[in-house]
Write a structure and sequence with these properties.
The protein is an alpha/beta fold and 248 residues long. Helix content is 37%, strand content 18%. It is built from 10 helices and 8 strands. The protein has an 8-stranded mixed β-sheet, with helices on both faces. The longest helix has 20 residues. The N and C termini lie far apart (44 Å).
C-alpha cells in the first residue's frame, strides 16, 4: 500500500482483526454485486469505500423517481440512467481508486457463469425469486460464497450461503426452487426506506468479513429483522440432502 492508501484505510488498519494484512487482502479481492438498487446501493458504497479492489455491478434497470426514496446511490439528475452506471459513479466519487465494472444487462445464467470464476464473493441484491435461484445455482457450481439479502415492507433478512463449508446450506436448501412464491414487489407493497440500508449494510459487513477471513460468517444462520419493533431474530439452517442444487 502507498501512503495515500495507508491514510485512507487507517481506521481499518487500526483494527487488530484487519490490520495491514487484512486491508491488503481487501485491495486484492474481487466482488460481484447483482442488483444496484435499494440493497445494492449501500453494498456498493461500503465495499468501494472499504477498498475492495475490483467490484463488478450488474443490473439492467434504470433509475426512476420512485427509487430515490431509498436507493441512496442514485440522484435526481440520474433519472433514466442505468442503475449500474449510476452506482459505479457514486462509488468512484467516494474512492477514485476503485476499479468498478458496470454491466447493464440482466443477470441470466450464461452471464453469471462467465462472471463467477473471476470473483471471490457474490452479493445478491435482487428482488425476484428466479434471479436469486440462478445466482445460487451459479455460486454452488463455482463454489463461491453468496451473501443474500432481502427487504420488503418493514421486514428484512440476510444470510451467507457458502457450500465450501461441509455442513453449510445453499439458498435452495432454505427456499426450494420447486416452491415458487407469490412475488411481492416494493412497487405494490412498499418498503421502509432505511430498511434496505440496514440489510445492505449487513450484507457488506458479511462480504468484508469473508474477504478478510475474520469473525464468524452467517453461513447456516438466517438473520431476520422486524423493523417495526427493531427486533432481530435468527434461525439455524441446515444443508438438505434432498436439495437438487447442492446435492444433485
Amino acid at each position: 500500500m502507498n501512503d495515500s492508501q495507508l491514510l485512507r484505510y487507517s481506521r481499518h488498519i487500526l483494527l487488530d482483526d484487519i490490520g495491514v494484512e487484512g486491508q491488503a487482502r481487501l485491495l486484492a479481492s474481487r466482488a460481484l454485486i447483482v442488483g444496484a438498487g435499494g440493497l445494492g446501493s449501500p453494498v456498493g458504497l461500503y465495499l468501494g469505500s472499504a477498498g475492495v479492489g475490483q467490484i463488478t455491478l450488474i443490473d439492467h434497470d434504470r433509475v426512476d423517481a420512485t427509487n430515490l426514496q431509498r436507493q441512496i446511490a442514485h440522484s435526481l439528475d440520474r433519472i433514466g440512467q442505468f442503475k449500474a452506471l449510476s452506482l459505479a459513479e457514486s462509488i468512484r466519487n467516494i474512492n477514485p481508486d476503485a476499479q468498478v465494472n458496470a454491466i447493464t444487462e440482466r443477470a441470466d445464467a450464461a452471464r453469471l457463469d462467465a462472471l463467477l470464476p473471476e470473483v471471490d464473493v457474490v452479493l445478491d441484491c435482487t428482488d425476484n425469486f428466479a434471479t436469486r435461484q440462478a445466482i445460487n445455482q451459479a455460486c454452488v457450481m463455482h463454489r463461491k460464497p453468496l451473501v443474500s439479502g432481502a427487504a420488503i415492507g418493514f421486514d428484512g433478512q440476510v444470510s451467507v450461503f457458502d457450500v465450501r463449508q461441509a455442513e453449510a446450506p445453499c439458498y435452495a436448501c432454505l427456499f426450494s426452487p420447486a416452491e415458487v412464491p407469490e412475488e411481492t414487489r416494493c412497487a405494490t407493497m412498499g418498503v421502509f426506506a432505511p430498511l434496505v440500508g440496514i440489510i445492505g449494510s449487513v450484507q457488506a459487513a458479511e462480504a468484508l468479513k469473508l474477504l478478510c477471513g475474520l469473525g464468524e460468517p452467517l453461513a447456516g444462520r438466517l438473520l431476520m429483522l422486524d423493523a417495526r419493533r427493531m427486533a432481530w431474530s435468527e434461525i439455524s439452517v441446515q444443508r438438505q440432502s434432498s436439495c437438487l442444487v447442492c446435492h444433485p
